[in-house]
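Reading a protein record of the kind used here takes only a little practice. The integers have meaning only within a learned vocabulary of local backbone shapes. With that in mind, consider the following protein and its fold in token form:
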Amino acid sequence: MSLFTPLSRRRWLLGAAAVGATAAAEWLPGAPLATLARAADGFKDFFEGPPVKDYPLRRISQRVWMVWTPDGFPTPENQGMMSNVVFVVTRDGVVVLDSGGSLQIGQMAIRRIRTVTDKPVVAVFNSHYHGDHWLGNHAFRDAFGASLPIYALPACIDEIAGVQGNLWRSLLERWTNGATLGTQVVVPNRPVAHGQELRFGDTTLRLHHYGVAHTPCDLCVEIVEDRVTYVGDVAMHRRIANMDDGSYLGTFRTFDALEKHTKSQIWVPGHGDAGPNLLRENRELFEGIYRPCEQAVKNGVALEQAKALVLADPRVKKYAAVTQGFESNIGKYTSLAYLEAEKEAF
């Protein structure tokens, strides 16, 4: 299968010509600045994918809005727009909770923010190190300056600055057939901690982290006055969460803690719709996957039989038909649940 669509092939040809022009101009004594500028423009066209269409806005509460996507996985067609971009309009400016999966998605999110308010973006929070939630940092840095505070847990900052940063940039390029080209890794520049509160004018953001859940460094952001909490990928709506870096038991503990330590009435996910029942529904599905595996381990039942027990569980049956990625992922996530149950048993 060809890497390039007709559009991206044309961009590649333009870029190749621009590379040649740049190289030639560099070695020609006294090359005019206009020539260099034209070459640079072509070079930029090569390295940047096309703009992303505007996605719908949903108002969650008085202060909280969401740029919403119906898709849960990246494709060339959706150009990597697979996760929500959430923003909070405060008296001091706009606070963004997860910036999207590319430069182009971040630029689209800024356009959507501008339809709500002309206030500047004064802060960005990254919930974890999966790139569909933070690669849009590039757009916000370009639009609002290199000093824009971008907050994340220290472990998340380390992961993005390390292997995860370029890995996720490359993955999004591959999955979208180059639609995210031009996106740079912009690492969060402000470490935060569990229990910390940040005040933006009339709005208090309280930060929550309760150990490994979806990843080892999930940051949930409570918008205190609105009784809303953004949970990132700790919980998703109608999508099976990636648990490769996570823990089922840790997810249950995080749900318990969020319900105990916040007064939130609405939970906002990184994928899917916000609502009051998000944690309960996610818990039900995850219990349906994990508990049969836990019992299988106790009874000495092999993994192959455990999968049949999971598929027969009424909690899993309830959500199977309405959960994106269920068929392609349930085998892997059953295996992960079984391995975690084995580890807990010993």
Residues 6-27 form the longest helix (22 residues). Confidence is low (pLDDT under 50) at residues 1-45. The longest strand covers residues 203-208.
